[in-house]
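Attaching the record inline, Q. Sequence:
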Amino acid sequence: MGEHTVTSFDEELEHIDRLIRDMGDLACSMVKSSTGALVNSDNALAQRIISDDSVMDARQRELDEASITLIAKRQPMALDLRSVVGAIRMAADLERIGDLAKNIAKRVGAVVQTPTQKSLALSIETMSEMVLVQVKGVVDSYVARDAEALRELRNRDEKIDIKYTAVFRELLTYMMEDPRNITACTHLLFCAKNLERIGDHVTNIAENAYYTVTGEQLPAQRPKQDETAIAALAE
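Structure, as predicted:
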């Protein structure tokens, strides 16, 4: 992003950029902690994640207000306009990632109350680690204005879809083997779906960031390997 004649214009653009970085850091923290709370049956940590969602919402509102004010005052063009509009779109996806992390945290209490083994949640933990790499990577790549990294990261969402399908089948097997696992596994299936949807939001961020950086759109079609097609889990 080049420098402008009016120094305050650059400062306003940097403020918006900084809010995106802050939201990205918070999103990473919420995804990591929500899964940690799930695996370790940590209700206190889960409650903290639920509280963090209000912080994420506040940062999105701050970014929206700063962006609208900048557009009204500066009437940005070309790359500057793409950066501001792109930031608004990316912030919306980061806020949704926070919501999905909160949804996982909300299920910790229910899973804790069921007689289940910790091993049932281990696949969720592995999937979370994959998703976390994506969330951190997309923000870092945007900050670095690395278009090629954004393209590659967007295509890696296929691996998360494949992992989700594997987790789905594994949990379904646990449910069929022992009916006592049904309640816990049902909650874990929702958690896995939330993680898969976080991966989709990362893809949206990557696409918007790529357009912001290059002025070009990535191809509309991308691979989708989620074979479960369970409509109820999509809610």
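Residues 229-235 have pLDDT under 50 and may be disordered. The chain has eight helices and no strands.

More tomorrow.
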